[in-house]
Amino acid sequence: MLALAVRAGIALRLGSEDESAFRPFELELRRRLWCCIALLDTQATLDRGTAPMLLSTAVGPLPLNINDCAMSITATPRVTTHGFTEMSFSLLIFESMLIQKRICETSDWDHKLQLISAYEQMMQQNYLENQPITPLETLAGLAAKEIMSNMQLLMRRPPYKQHNNIPPSDSFQPMEVSTRILEGHLALKTPELSPWAWKEWVPWYALAVVLAELCRHPNGVSSDRAYAAAEEVYKRSFRPSTDSESGMLWKPIAKLMRRVQRDRQRSSGSLSTLPSTVPSVNLSASEQGLQNSSSASDIETTFGIEHQDNSMEVSGDGDFVSNGYANSASMINEYDLNMNLYNDLDPANGVSWLNWDLFLEDTEFPSDQT
Amino acid sequence: MQLEFTDNSAKVFQQASVVQNGNKNSHLNIGDATRQSPSTGQIGEFVAPDFWTALSREVSGLRETFESSEDEYDPQEHALTNGNLDEDSTFGSLLFKDGSLSGEHCSLPVLSMSWRKLLLDLYRRRVDNVFKVLHWPSVLKDIEATHSDVQATSIPQSTQALEYAIYFMALCTVTDEESEELLLGSKAALMHHCRIATEIAIANANFLRTPSIASLQAFVLYLVSICSSRVRSIRCI
Question: I need a surface site. Which of A114, A325, B22, B162 has the fewest CB within 10 A?
Fold first, then answer.
């Protein structure tokens, strides 16, 4: 149905209009509408790993940063306003959308890095330098941080299987960045931001990245922090459901969580149920039941995941594969049918990428068609 | 009734017809489009009578719900009235079919003033400042004009489509608990019927054949409303 919106927009010549043929008021309405359509297009691209319908060059000029009260049919400014206006939050999203499109349109890794660097400087200047005054400005600041982190993460952990374009290794720390995203999500639940609670969504993507990374590093200071955030988000968000979409999403995440919990138990020397170190939250009765019991086992029961306590494969130097995920570089060769995919990755990143790749297989995401 | 947000989906908009039953109460029988995009325009292959029979029953159920609940509610506080579902109602063309049936448009449920104000306020406070697709003062003015001019012989269909899309989007921002507290009733039921009303209104506006800025705004809001409930969306932006 998004295609209908795009086609209708093209028919109305949104984004490509002759500016002299429209009054400034009409131009602003048209630009707002077209950017919203382009935003939906970018969102669909991220969700499905498919090519966008609109290139960045088709978006056209962004709307101005002006309040509605400054606009009328007879008099609308032609220049943007400095400061936070009614358009500012949407402009933040539109600018992010545009950069995301440009990043996806280039295969040059250095160019991608340049684009995102310039974008982060702009976001810092426009949305993060000043202390927020209103709740909406606070929301904008939080959104800016989360979007920047997500963009970096998307470059290194694309949410769909890559056949030929594995991101190169660099100093980027997926676990640290995705942990920040989860912590930011947990911080969103403040009363002043309640009008926009409907915009909250389960950060399953960042959660999956954290858990995949924890498969390689289950313990340690940074891992403990990552696990705490992941466990809290997981407890708040996990909803056993017969819905196929939800099931396809949560089953592999539950599998990852189980692996991480078992690895942490093993590393701590205890095979008993891992006590929760996360402060209790207000959970429903069913959620309390899930929290108080062995969460990994209940998750398995819900999704019919086979118990694999006795099915650990040990090979080589004591490395093991549990629940299909790897913790050692020596396992890469076993899974990498195309040796070339991992050649450019150092062993540590190779394991991380392998685990992420395995997760994507579990979710049955569409392959990268770009 | 979860819509698949795909580029090739063409399920929603359809021909609406009003059929009278023996009691002179109107039922809404609506034609249907399949889940596949119409590549050839052979619209006859898209009719799925079973689906729309069920939809017709649901719309009738809505009427029965409000008729039977008049003892419990102040009629003035009723969100929806069904006064327009009468034998003189008109219906719209099937979006993917050439030629209209008889230029008739499907009637829409009418919300009470208090509910309209509530939903419009919710949209303004919760949606408009984070998803700025509208110029709110002018939209509000247009919507209020359609309700204040009782002598008007015709209401702009695109404005009506935008109005219902706004209500639908506003409902998406409400939790189940809020819905009860605000005396809106069951959110799920209200969302379901509001969604149908939005779809009908967009169809009435002839969006596919002659899109306008307002009808496209309505359609975009409709898409956002549908997408807001998707579980699997990454939503990084």
Answer: B22
